[in-house]
Amino acid sequence: MNWTFGIKLAMGFAISVLTVLVIGVSGHRVTAELIENDHWVAHTEEVKRTLVLFLSSLKDIETGQRGFLLTGDDQFLEPYRAGLGDVERLLNDARRLTADNEAQQRRVVELGPVVDERLASLARHIEQRRSQGLEAMLKPGVLSEGKQHMDKIRRIVAEMDQAESSLLAERSQRAQQSAATAQTTIVWGSLLGTLLVVIAGVVLSRSLTSQIGVAVRHIQTSSAELQAAANQQATGAKEQATAMSEVTTTISELLATSRQIAESARRVADIASQTASQARTGDGTVIRGTEAVAAIKRQVDAIVSNMLELGKKSQQIGAVLDIVSELAEQTNILAINATIEAAGAGESGRRFGVVADEIRKLADRVGGSTKEIRGLIDDVRAAVNTTVMTTETGSKAVDAGSDQFGQVASAFRQISLQVGTATEAAKEIELSTKQQATAVEQVNVAITNVAQASKESEVSTGQTLRTASELATLSRDLLKLVEAQRSNGASRSAAN
Amino acid sequence: MRQAERNLSRVASELRTGFDAAFAKALAPERPPELDLLQIRVAEHDYALRLSQVLAVHADRKLVPVPGPRPELLGLFGVRGVVAPVYDLRLLLGYQAATPPRFVAQVRAPAPFAVAFELFERHLRVPESAVTLGGSSVDGAHSFAPGSVNSTSGPLPLIDLLAIFVAVTSKSRRDDAPEREERP
Lengths: 496, 184
Hints:
The complex is a heterodimer.
Chain A: H1 5-71, H2 77-97, H3 102-132, H4 134-137, H5 147-344, H6 350-495
Helix pairs in contact in A: 1-2, 1-3, 1-5, 2-3, 3-5, 5-6
Chain B: H1 2-24, E1 34-42, E2 45-50, E3 54-59, E4 73-79, E5 82-88, H2 89-92, E6 103-107, E7 114-117, E8 119-127, E9 131-132, E10 147-151, E11 154-159, H3 161-182
Parallel strand pairs in B: 2-11, 5-7
Antiparallel strand pairs in B: 1-2, 1-8, 3-6, 4-5, 6-7, 9-10, 10-11
């Protein structure tokens, strides 16, 4: 039968409970019967004790009455008076206690008048003693008057006591039988219940051990797999937490970079705006520069013309200087010749020689100066030539510069347009970068949450791992318990 | 240029002062004997001529070529009614002559004689003690320049024009003698 654990346990407990109930009910019934028998035994004992007390009270009454009769002292009447109440009460008790016994009731009824007569006799003698004194009591037949009543009372009481004793013996026997029955019921019921519980326990143990063993092995296997999975998950969660931490750091850096880019883009936009303004200003400046270059070109042309004229003048100066040099040379030669002639003229030519010598010196120095002037003129002409060439080169450069200025002006206009485009692009970049920074912030928040979740997952995974480890340990312990129980059961089966 | 202008101004001032001083200066007292020389340039070498051996110096004078076997004879030129043969001093001193010489020095000799050279440098006046005769080791020394003179620009070979005249004249006589002997 493929019963569940609940059904099996319920069946086992039901058998046990039913057994306990049967034993309990039987025990209760037997115990109740035993209690009833004991009650009746006690009742009988009480009746007998009441009868004994009744006779004793009558004896006290008679004893007190006799003491008074002998002494005349009322002090001896105390037991008499106490006994009167007790006799009445005890008689009523006996009537009440024997209400279920007709024979005893008849004896109580029979006992009542006798007791009354006896008490009346005692009371009459007390009055006689009081009134007639002790001598009247000593008369024959006076004191023996009550002996008949007492004998009758003793006989009736003895009959009642005998009846009660018979009932006591009967009831004691029944009580003993009830006790024996209760003992038997309890012992055998307990044995039977124990046997049934043991059988149910063995059956349940075997069945549950088998199923629990299989389940525990499954649990052990599953817990091992769960432990391995939790271990991997813990490692993965740790790596994930680490990765998320790195991602968080990277996102933070990316956020800072995005902000820097946004700031840079804003600066670029500002600079681009300024550049556009300056480009427009530069366009006007270039136009003015073009005009200035044209003026420079005209000035350079004038300089070239003037330098060429200067070159011509230098050539003319050179020509004149050639004449001067030649004249100086001729003068020098003439002076030398005059010196020679003066030397040939003797003493009379000596004065003329001095003049000729001075003329020669002067011509010589003029010749030297002419050479220096020649060198200077050559330098001037070379400088003029160089200047002319340089100026022509400068004129060409100015022409090229003018053309380039035109190109620069065109380029400036193009730059102005492109800078405007760049400004718009920079603004779009700034806007996009701000949106990107906002998105990165949102991503950062999300990543932070994910990182927090990863850390919590790491903690939960660690808890899961510990729980899986504890579960594996518990499953091993449980399997050990199950295996030990099975081995014990097998060994007991083998022993039987 | 400014330095050159200042130099020119200074030179002009000195010339002017010197010219004026020449008229105010008294006659020079007796001085130690001095020697007047002419510094010339021959084939890129500087030489000195004794002014006492020169009658006159001429420049850019036209020479009349004379055909003959002697390449150093450049031609004839006339001055003040005198016709003198002109010899190339470069060839006489053993140099090569590439261009025609510009200056001609008329030599004070027994017969009309002149030598031509490329450039007249300047007039020199040195004490006679500055002249060294014979055994000169100055660059450009020649048999026609046996001595030397120490000038402000260094030692110069001193050409003996009379020796050249004698040598040229003697050579001409030797060359002319066979012709006369051949004549009847």
